[in-house]
Amino acid sequence: MNMPCITMVGAPHLLLGAVTKALSDAAISCRYPSDRTEVLKCEVASDYNINGGMVQEAPECRGIALQYYLVFKSLAKNHWEKFSG
Question: Which keywords annotate this record (predicted)?
Answer without folding.
Answer: Signal
